[in-house]
Specification:
The complex is a heterodimer.
Chain A (H helix, E strand, L loop, with lengths): L2 H32 L16 E9 L3 H8 L2 H8 L3 E5 L4 E6 L6 E11 L3 E6 L6 E10 L6 E10 L3 H11 L3 H18 L13
Antiparallel strand pairs in A: 1-7, 2-3, 3-4, 4-5, 5-6, 6-7
Helix pairs in contact in A: 3-5
Chain B lengths: L1 E7 L2 E6 L11 E10 L3 H5 L15 E9 L10 E4 L2 E2 L5 H4 L12 H11 L5 E2 L16 E4 L7 E2 L6 H4 L5 H11 L7 E5 L3 H12 L4 E6 L2 H10 L2 E4 L5 H8 L7 E4 L10 H11 L8 H9 L5 E4 L12 H6 L3 E4 L4 H13 L11 E4 L3 H10 L7 E4 L2
Parallel strand pairs in B: 10-11, 10-13, 11-12, 13-14, 14-15, 16-17
Antiparallel strand pairs in B: 1-2, 3-4, 3-8, 3-17, 4-5, 5-9, 6-7
């Protein structure tokens, strides 16, 4: 095979690959546009440099009750289960502490949205260790089942994919922490307690 | 306290462990007066259920006396109670519909993700049955912490011996729900695979619900005798071709309903079961689903399939074609124990249901490991083991 023919073949293969990639991308975008699934369920990891995770849980309680729980830092710390804690500073500044290894991670945020009974959102300050936005949205559940509480976290892990993986391995990735918090909240609101298999009360 | 702990495959030991304490407001502490080894405990003993850890206290069939209560418990100290093996909050969407074994709030958050991954949804908490279902310490012990004690335990009037009511904790309601799931109409033919405790109670329940004939299938002569004593006809699968026999015994129609009371550890030397056993042995398969496959083949067109037998993972060679083409219905699930306990206690007190006939051995808690070994090795004679602490 001549050198020229080789180059033509390589260029052709590259062109076909590029076209296929563009088609797949367009198809993915079309699919994304053509369904009603929440954006975070899209088949991709990266959302403009952010990881996006979340969970919706139906809780048999009113929106006002659930909102009140989330505005009470003492209650919040209980449902965060020790891995995550929240301190309110003067004004609408909140510090989230993740009990990570080798050292706890503190993330300072502003409460950027506060619509009672509907939505709360925190955004990390510019100089924060992790760039993150946390949102809680409350909707009436159908068939009088209470409230759909949706937690939504968009974050930019330190060290990218490796940082995300490390957090996942430690059980401290924000998506997981939010999912667990919502489930504890559901337990607390619906039953008055948080289920545990421990035969003794844990201190702290 | 003393408790039976799981240490590994075929290795259970009675050890001294810390006493339980009240942790949550709705808790109660029960001093166990009687507890039993369940056929499904043998799945843990055989290490085929994922999520069991060394040191876990086993046991999910137990009753006892209330010795301590949290401020949210409705029980009183000194009351005798039978405790359902399913832990249910009584408040969530599922509990409100009577689907207690689907409770959303009893499996601790930390252990929910494994079952979400395996089953798509988190399971409810169960006593002594692996960390997929919460890792709750079980009832083969002197004391048990019972969460949501205002929902689960049923108070037993004094004067009724433990042995008459102990099985309200699991196998009696499980057999009853199995028959209910079979949607029995008067005169129906019902085939029950497995004449162990759940199968026997399913036979008893099916007859009470009006079945015309119930056919018990097993290979242990003593268990087949117990089925016959209840009024069932029997098939010993070592001697007869089950599918052919069932067709002949039902006029060529097939049973109207079938009940798989065997679950994930089918016996026998059929090719599919040998393949399942090999996969289970090397850890690439969980369920030996031979009985379920056979039940789907045996049931009549448009018939009902009830599955009280425990399955844990995935099965292949599954006759989906038979399921679809014959238009079958399948109902299954962990038992919604709390839904049935009051009615079944009433039937026991009225003498309609006897639960003691299947007890073959009574041991002390200290002898529990021997009980496991014999219940596992000699299923013909060891039909049910009741343990007494202290």
């Amino acid at each position: 095979m001549s050198r020229q023919r080789e180059l033509v073949l390589i260029a052709g293969a590259a062109g076909l690959s590029l076209a296929a990639a563009m088609l797949l991308r367009r198809r993915a975008e079309d699919l994304r546009r053509s369904d009603d699934a929440p954006g975070r369920t899209a088949r991709r990891l990266d959302f403009g440099g952010y990881r996006v995770d979340g969970r919706t849980v139906t809780i048999s309680a009113s929106r006002a009750d659930i909102y009140a729980q989330w505005r009470d830092p003492a209650r919040l710390n209980r449902i965060f289960g020790g891995t995550l804690s929240l301190r309110q500073h003067p004004g609408d500044r909140f510090v989230w502490t993740i009990d990570a290894t080798p050292a706890p991670i503190e993330v300072e945020t502003w409460l950027v949205e506060d619509r009672p009974g509907e939505q709360l959102a925190w955004r990390s300050v510019d100089e924060a260790e992790i760039d993150v936005e946390i949102k809680l949205q409350l909707r009436d559940a159908p068939a009088a089942r209470g409230t759909e509480a949706e937690a939504h976290v968009a974050w930019r892990p330190r060290w990218g994919l490796a940082g995300h993986y490390a957090a996942w391995m430690q059980g401290t990735d924000p998506g997981r922490l939010c999912r667990q918090a919502l489930k504890r909240l559901k337990m607390l609101v619906e039953t008055g307690e948080i289920a545990t298999a421990d035969n003794e009360r844990r201190e702290g | 306290m003393r408790a039976l702990t799981w240490q590994g495959k075929h290795d259970v030991r009675v050890e001294t462990v810390p006493d339980p304490r009240i942790v949550n407001p709705r808790d109660a502490i029960i001093q166990v007066t009687a507890t039993a080894i369940c056929g499904s405990d043998l799945h843990l003993y055989d290490a085929v259920i994922p999520g069991v850890q060394p040191g876990d206290i086993l046991g999910h069939e137990f009753m006892g006396r209330v010795v301590e209560t949290g401020p949210g418990s409705t029980l009183k100290k000194g009351q005798r109670v039978v405790v359902p093996f399913t832990i249910s909050c009584g408040a969530c969407f599922f509990c409100a519909q009577g689907q207690f074994s689907a409770c959303d709030n009893s499996n601790p958050v930390e252990t929910q993700e494994a079952s979400e991954l395996l089953y798509g949804h988190a399971m409810s908490g169960l006593f002594g049955y692996s960390h997929l279902t919460g890792g709750y310490p079980g009832g083969q012990a002197e004391y048990v912490r019972v969460p949501f004690s205002d929902v689960g335990p049923i108070v037993i009037p004094d004067g009724i011996p433990d042995e008459q009511v102990l099985f309200l904790s699991d196998i009696l309601p499980t057999g009853w729900m199995a028959a209910e799931n079979a949607q029995i109409h008067p005169g129906d033919s019902v085939a029950v695979w497995g004449c162990g405790p759940v199968g026997l109670f399913a036979i008893q329940s099916a007859l009470l619900m009006g079945a015309g004939q119930v056919i018990g299938i097993d290979h242990h002569p003593n268990r087949l005798r117990l089925a016959r004593d209840l009024g069932a006809r029997t098939i010993d699968y070592r001697h007869s071709h089950v599918l052919e026999a069932l067709m002949e015994m039902t006029g060529g129609i097939g049973p109207d309903a079938v009940i798989d009371a065997v679950g994930m550890e089918s016996h026998g030397f059929s090719p599919d079961n040998l393949l399942d056993a090999a996969k289970q042995k090397i850890g690439i398969g969980v369920d030996r689903a031979h009985v379920l496959r056979m039940a789907l083949m045996a049931v009549r067109k448009g018939g009902r399939v009830s599955v009280p037998g425990v399955y844990g993972g995935f099965a292949d060679k599954f006759p989906l074609g038979a399921l679809m083409q014959k238009g079958l219905q399948i109902r299954t699930g962990q038992t919604h124990v709390q839904k049935y306990t009051s009615e079944l206690l009433q039937r026991i007190m009225e003498g309609q249901i006897d639960t003691t006939f299947l007890i073959s051995h009574r041991l002390s808690l200290e002898e529990a490991a021997e009980g496991y070994r014999n219940f596992h090795e000699n299923q013909n004679e060891w039909t049910k083991v009741v343990l007494t602490p202290g």
